[in-house]
Amino acid sequence: MKNFIYILLGTFLGIVLYKSEAASWFRIYEMFQFDSFHMYGIIGSALVLGVVFVLWIKKSKIKSFFGESIHIEDKEKLFARYILGGTLFGLGWALAGACPGPIYVLAGAGHWPILIVLLGAILGALVYGIVREKLPH
Questions:
Q1: What stretches of 20-132 show up as alpha helix (H) in DSSP?
Q2: At what angle are helices 100-108 and 2-19 packed, to 10 degrees?
Q3: How far apart are CA 18 and CA 3, in angstroms?
Q4: How many other CB atoms are there within 10 angstroms of residue 57's CB atom?
Q5: What is the pLDDT of residues 65-85, one digit of tens each?
Q6: Using CA atoms, how far apart are residues 129 and 114, in angstroms rounded to an integer?
Q7: How far, in whole angstroms, is CA 26 from its chain's centroid?
Q8: pTM exceeding the 0.90 threshold for the entire prediction
Q9: How many other CB atoms are found less than 10 A from the CB of residue 125?
């Protein structure tokens, strides 16, 4: 039953991403050209909601679905690490025309060439899993 709820939530999120044009290559291109506020509004509102919910989780000490307390640890403040990771993520996003979430949305909407990008993302995650222990963390 719990998996069915996740499927429903994921489907709802996919519909919202598609209808808001957050998965549109044209909107992403507009964002990188600084021609439109559309994507910045979506990303900014997601950022604000994320901060609010994380603060709410930390203050209210709510429990997970399994009854365990949720503890969010602080991240290390390594500037170079985040610059390198953000640059790689941004380059991949620019080359593919979609970040990881909308890849599934575009595949579900019938844009079949995105399956090549999905395969590349899966292979990239596989390669990372193989070399993870050799990388500095």
A1: 25-32, 38-60, 79-96, 100-108, 114-131
A2: 90
A3: 22
A4: 14
A5: 788 888 888 878 778 888 888
A6: 23
A7: 18
A8: no
A9: 11
